[in-house]
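Researcher: Let's try something more involved. This one mixes different molecule types, so please make sure each is placed in the same coordinate frame as the others.
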Amino acid sequence: MSGSGQLPLRDYLRSRRDEVEQALARVLPPEAGRLATIRDAMRYSLLAGGKRLRPVLALTAAETVAPADREAAALAMPAACAIEMIHTYSLIHDDLPAMDNDSMRRGKPTLHVVYGDGLAILAGDGLLAEAFALLARDPDDTGRPELAARKLAAIRRIADAAGARGMVGGQAIDLQAVGHTVGPEALDADGLKDMHARKTGALIRAATVAGAIMAGAPPARVAAVDRYAEWLGLAFQIVDDVLDVEGAGEDLGKTAGKDAAAGKPTYPSLFGLGASKRMAQEAADAAVAALAETELDRSRLAEIAQWVVSRTS
Amino acid sequence: MSGSGQLPLRDYLRSRRDEVEQALARVLPPEAGRLATIRDAMRYSLLAGGKRLRPVLALTAAETVAPADREAAALAMPAACAIEMIHTYSLIHDDLPAMDNDSMRRGKPTLHVVYGDGLAILAGDGLLAEAFALLARDPDDTGRPELAARKLAAIRRIADAAGARGMVGGQAIDLQAVGHTVGPEALDADGLKDMHARKTGALIRAATVAGAIMAGAPPARVAAVDRYAEWLGLAFQIVDDVLDVEGAGEDLGKTAGKDAAAGKPTYPSLFGLGASKRMAQEAADAAVAALAETELDRSRLAEIAQWVVSRTS
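Model: All components are placed in one shared frame. Result:
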């Protein structure tokens, strides 16, 4: 595992993020002719930067579970890119006027503002479909049946996370809850946690688990990494809610205070700011504790859990 | 191969369609609690009937290329269902106000009319993601590495057909061409053919090819079936355009004359009705000729090609 004697976390994250950026640009090159516009729209959102948390988690999980395997991160890179494509598609669709109606994302006008709603819907659809094309294609499994099995396991996990019990279900719950502070559609604390576990947590877990699977982790390590990522996703979401209250729009690259304005329940609105911050720290600690079961608690993954709680954007 | 001495084609198609209906209902059972609404929305569109041309083509191709294999159609059924899920998602998104703005589909109000645009977008997204979950999961490949390889090949083919060079690209070209009868966005005959080959043809080809792949067809038969389906898709699209002019809304289950009203180029508008009908017949004949190369030209697939040209809805 990548020990603490190596690169400072900030430099490690930047280096991994740069690799992801380069891989994403290669995965989705520009097109000429009639397909130029739709491809440009997909690239506009996919290559707009961002923390790249999910793909970095996939790469870090791969390195962590198979520290002696120099190929591990390379095997996980296609899954890392596919997950960022799926994450980007979900942002494009969430930002549409028919959903959250957001006009800024990652510091730029949202896709539908630039290309119109129709092309934005299609660009999201295209990113989702091509993510699975990439997962099925790379890495090349010719003559390596163990890689074919890993790819199918990763596809199952990622598709479930993206589906109606995962991201799509979470966004549907969110959409139905907007403006309902009382009544059957209103979200209590359990409902809020369930909504986030689906909407954000499922793909964060799938990213981490897919990285471990692609590196050939044994089942016990996959399970530990899965529990880690479940807690990490919770911490990440609570911090997101806190930053939505405290953060500046500039740092976030999106409109701050948006959730409160839309009448959406958040951790601070249900529990208060101080309690929310404590809950985030407890979730990060639980994430690290989950790694301890398979002695991965001094790895980069553990460092990332603490970073998620201390981040300011 | 299924010879002509068996069930009449009409009965064969009905029987296969019934099997597909039952499989689709099993693949997407209702959900309780917070996920009930999004699942109901997905089922509303997926279980609304229709010709089920694509899944039937997948099953028929599987039977045709492996006539001695009683398991062939069963191996192809998950791919058949996944393709119908992807086809349904594309209809849901195409019908949105931001795209074609259609209010009727398969004889019922379109999904966004009933559930709103936001949930309709999400229901489409969910169908697309869950199609890949199904493809990666079924049929069970435990201990059968040859099935894992077939599944990955089918996923690659289907994801490419759904992606930005396939269906999504075709719909983007279509969307950009609306209202442009002159200028760089206007579609000439080549542009129209390219648009349809992507928007409709790619998934019809992928359905047929995926069926053949799942049944374990050798490469020469997969290639013949692919060429067959390319011509079949062209015939199907020309007939669709002809029916849009000649057909009654009631038979079609959607609004007739819609394309002409939207100023979209069609085969009849570019070539006239008579020439369009001749072109459809020539394409169907070419589809059958493609099968002859591997002696599959007296199969159900050949019968289906002739039926596609003679259909009235």
